[in-house]
Amino acid sequence: MAKGYWIARVDIRDAERYKDYVAAAKPAFEQFGARFLARGGSAEGVEGAHRARNVIIEFASFESAKACYNSPEYQVAKSIRHECADGEIVLVEGA
Predict the structure, then answer these.
(1) Which pTM does this prediction carry?
(2) How many domains in the chain?
(3) Which tens digit of pLDDT belongs to each residue from 2-38?
């Protein structure tokens, strides 16, 4: 079974409020076995629009990645993230 990934690109508008998002998202990530492969480290935009924070999260399957995103726990976190950051999340099935 192919793994699943979240690829998130984010510009944080309110760093203090973003901490609330991180805390709210943690239970969903733990429940679905999320493993952070990249989390806000140095990045170099070489094509297209660039965001300040880039995150890659691995899940055991694409279905787990989708279930985490759609979980009630993550939906609460997502509403907080929308208050304090702009960005995109793409769910990707691994090879």
Answers:
(1) 0.93
(2) 1
(3) 999 999 999 999 999 999 999 999 999 999 999 999 9
Q: Which long-range contacts (CB under 8 A, 24 or more apart) does 15-24 make?
A: 15/84, 17/80, 17/83, 17/84, 18/81, 18/84, 18/85, 20/80, 20/84, 21/77, 21/80, 21/81, 21/84, 21/85, 24/73, 24/76, 24/77, 24/80
Q: The domain spanning residue 87 has which CATH number?
A: 3.30.70.100
| Domain span including residue 21 | 4-93
Query: In percent, how much of the chain has pLDDT > 90?
Result: 95
Distance CA 82, CA 87 (A): 9
